[in-house]
Amino acid sequence: xxxxxxxxxxxxxxxxxxxxxxxxxxxxxxxxxxxxxxxxxxxxxxxxxxxxxxxxxxxxxxxxxxxxxxxxxxxxxxxxxxxxxxxxxxxxxxxxxxxxxxxxxxxxxxxxxxxxxxxxxxxxxxxxxxxxxxxxxxxxxxxxxxxxxxxxxxxxxxxxxxxxxxxxxxxxxxxxxxxxxxxxxxxxxxxxxxxxxxxxxxxxxxxxxxxxxxxxxxxxxxxxxxxx
Length: 228
Fold this sequence. Notes:
This protein is an alpha/beta fold. It is built from nine helices and eight strands. The chain is about 40% helix and about 15% strand.
């Protein structure tokens, strides 16, 4: 079992969950824009291609709403207003700890350095960090959304390791995404712990090979201290 000098975490879906439900945000976008609602939240999630562009979040949503409008035969919908309404409806303070997150942070602090690498930009993610009371919880915070390259590129991980003066080989990254967290960490030479939000089976990993698979963040402590 490897010994780690640093444990780094993803934020959204890993340490925290969002308390607003999908319907509130989706239909709130229409209400704020003053447009009669059509479709369902799932239509928008399916229409949003890839990860959000931190440099153009509105454009990302406009494209999604355009696809939904096209699906339902609406040709002259103000999708820019819907995108703005969506962004104004989202409450970034409406977050809560995922089960086991506090215990995982405490277990990581016993090991050594604790860090955070999130693909979101600082102006948005810092609100969530503050709402969770985690302003002083990390030795390094990397807002990859403000960098030229985000996860799964190695750059955000390299930036965190350099700031901590630790080696990739003795660092562990914990996240909920195979594509962004597991692949990204391993691209940079770190070990990866995958903790999906929903129960998953080994045969659902599509060729990814995280060093650890957790059903709960409570399992991190045992992975870090296997002899305890």
